[in-house]
Amino acid sequence: MSRRWIFRSVFAASFSASCAACFQLSADTPSSSIEFNTATASLQFFATTASGCLSVSPLTLPPPAARAPRRFRPRIVDGHTEGMPSEGEFDLIARLAPFLATSGEDLVVGHGDDAAVIDVDGRGVCLAVDVLVEDVHFLRAVSSMSDVGYKSVAVNCSDLAAMGATPSVALVGLCRPTDVSSADIQQLYEGMSEACERWGLRLVGGDTVAAQALAVSVTVMGDVAPEGVVRRSGARPGDHLLVVGSLGAAAAGLALYRATGEFDDDLLIAHRRPVARVAAGRTLADGGATAMIDVSDGFGADLTHVCQASGVGAVVEATALPAADGVAAVAKRLEVDPYTYIAGGGDDYALLAAVPAPAAPALATATGGVVVGEVIAGPPSATLRLPDGSTVDMAGMGWDHYGEERA
Amino acid sequence: MSRRWIFRSVFAASFSASCAACFQLSADTPSSSIEFNTATASLQFFATTASGCLSVSPLTLPPPAARAPRRFRPRIVDGHTEGMPSEGEFDLIARLAPFLATSGEDLVVGHGDDAAVIDVDGRGVCLAVDVLVEDVHFLRAVSSMSDVGYKSVAVNCSDLAAMGATPSVALVGLCRPTDVSSADIQQLYEGMSEACERWGLRLVGGDTVAAQALAVSVTVMGDVAPEGVVRRSGARPGDHLLVVGSLGAAAAGLALYRATGEFDDDLLIAHRRPVARVAAGRTLADGGATAMIDVSDGFGADLTHVCQASGVGAVVEATALPAADGVAAVAKRLEVDPYTYIAGGGDDYALLAAVPAPAAPALATATGGVVVGEVIAGPPSATLRLPDGSTVDMAGMGWDHYGEERA
Asked: Which of A108, A131, A302, B342 could form a disulfide with B173 if both were Cys (CB 3.0 to 4.6 A apart)?
């Protein structure tokens, strides 16, 4: 298979899935997710963005029976897609920017990073919010209510981990449709509680309201020393890139489910119950990490965010990426390039950090992470060096729009 | 009109409205809203609750054309309603209690109050979250997108005001259906921004996701001295009850709209753009208020919450309640007892505080508030003394289920 397929197929899959799953969405309009300081818990296709805080088109996951036929294959041109609404996401980012605070006074980190950080008398209070919506970010066929609750807390902890922060409390805003019973909500809370216990949070309040569709909005607060905050913007040429956690399991598990209806629990656990790398985040922050992000949108997309925020390039060795067990087998079975999942999938919640080269070996050992590449000088770009020595620009998607159709 | 109608009509109205507006709800099942530490931005009927943190059945607001005929009139018995699902709200409260933290260590206030308070090195960090859902908490026919944004911030500031806290930052989780354009979202953010400016907050981040229905989940963080926090639970016999702000405007304005389709902007402003009484909250906290709550569920319901949390009774003079201008006229026109709106309506976002009697006159002057009654010893109960000298128990709803039908 041509490597031109790597990104193209990810996009096409997420695009058609969006159309099928979000039944209020028109067939030719991808769903959209825009994050201002937190990562959405969704699989998302690669998009070059102006701000580094835009992610387009969560990979929604219709059950196989409900999947609509692929009616439309958008061409990808310079990071824009045909078929997008004329008032697109770039327009929206520009519209909203004036209303969002980035920094200043006691605001150490505002919108545009994984979480906000406020200086409270020298202590850093770190805040993130993520919303999980049924049929956009999870399917009840794949995830139990307990899984959804667990994940709603975990993804926020992952955002805090990427700042070097330690979560402390959570609040939940729950939109509850009538087909969600009290027992369902109890299970959701059980899942949240399990995640809270694992990462040392207390659930201190919230608001449950009647709604048409199930959505869980969790806010997590955490602690960080203001001077210890790691942003996306500090990566420097010569830094090494470290990944803690494995890549591709959720994307491969979901692709397998979509293609065959099979549940591979070993892969889907990454989607159902992601692991927030809180301790590793602290270790990396303490060890001098210059930039950090959690890999929620896909490795390539999130590395692109770091490169754009830091004004640097990055070169990554594909063979060094820590692929999750079982990803290669799914890729082979579905005749998809494995890097589709490893570099292009999302929902991994691995940590990606830029660290000073001399510190990299020790930090890798301390966190169980692996060095996957290097930060270079130059305009923002994220390059993947494939096993055959050729390279792919993970940020630019224009490269593939001459590729042949997949059989 | 018999005073037995006061509560009955409020309940019946909110019940039928719920059924009509929430089209996923079955006709005989009211929508529900459960708040763990924050007030929902909805009109709600009176309900006696075990925990003081439960509010049932937001008054949803279908446009007149969409209103369903009243098919079912539930009987109200001991705070329970027939027609509720067998696994009702009391069951849910009991199910969730084990997962929610109330206090301990650095958690000054957990679930069960208007907001949570965490002690961060001697500084109190105050957190609240409220979710506003279209067709449950607002109608686009009544509120502009800017109004919705404004209100989503204001109602959280009101929760913080009731703790004596000062808001500092806000985060937004936005569920965006496809019929909400970029321009709509910009207007929503303009409204949030206006409210942020008014109460001194910065909007520091959030998450926007595709969804079937419009919902806005806002989290607000604020500052408070941990020793200055005012809970619901501190009211003592002999304290005076002070109300800052006026009552009944939103309920009357919405009732008029529902009955006639008329927009009375002077009344609806309370529903569209509520005022958070932040400065008054601080003044009351500094002045020794023993308990405080914001009046979001309706005066009687919220006073009941305070009485239950504090283990006291309360007697209120109906004529002392600060009715908003125009409420009496709507009540007369619709042939409804005005206390339906004044004591039974919601969305007022007035502050209700218990203050030591000697401090009451000065605090009333300083805040523009009025003394409406007194805290008394005895089992939790909230009594309204009507102009004719008779009394109504605002907490207990069993009293009215022998009342005659309204013509």
From this structure: A131
